[in-house]
Amino acid sequence: MNFNSLLKQYQAVQDKERAAQMEKYMRNQFSFLGIATPERRKIAEPLFQEAKYHEVVDWCLIQKCWDCPYRELQYVACDYLHRVTPLLVSKDLESIEKLITTKSWWDSVDSLYIVIASMVQADPRLKKRMRAWSLDDNKWLRRAAIAYQLSLKEETDLELLSEVILNNTNHPDFFVQKAIGWILREYSKTDSDWVRSFINQHRDAMSKLSIREGSKYI
Could you give the C-alpha distances from 206 to 3, 66, 128, 162, 189, in angstroms and in order? Predict the structure, then answer.
């Protein structure tokens, strides 16, 4: 299945009423076809099945999805990346960075954390990029640097986590502060003592939002 075929199938089942609701939820930043996630993934499943036989990541397909005016196609690109994560190589992080900084919002950015985590785990040298992202002018790269370890549990690099959080305790953006609270809350399920100690040690520097979110389970 190619991109044009996929797009035509989505356009054939578009729901304008649902699209308006989805656009409103996303603060009217993106255009939607109005396709629910289960149906979107069902239609794209033949594409994902084909991806099993890919030897390299189809960045041309991803770019076409990202360039498309309909937000569902950006979701398809993220779903595709999840399917082909084992094919990603270290240099692909540059392309992931472009996705994060283009048509940026929490829905697309947060969809890429597991992909990023897999890449960094495979090549620890990429932690240097996470440190750079945590200081970048782009707030979404900062959010990604903070939150990409959400699924790592016992494999979380605590030294890196501490560093990227402390690089952002004074950042004014809601989504950055929310990410700090989110990653601390999630890691508290693995080691509540560490999170409690971290918050107590840095309480004066942290926002109330980050503390509130990070303390939910401790």
Answer: 45, 35, 24, 12, 20
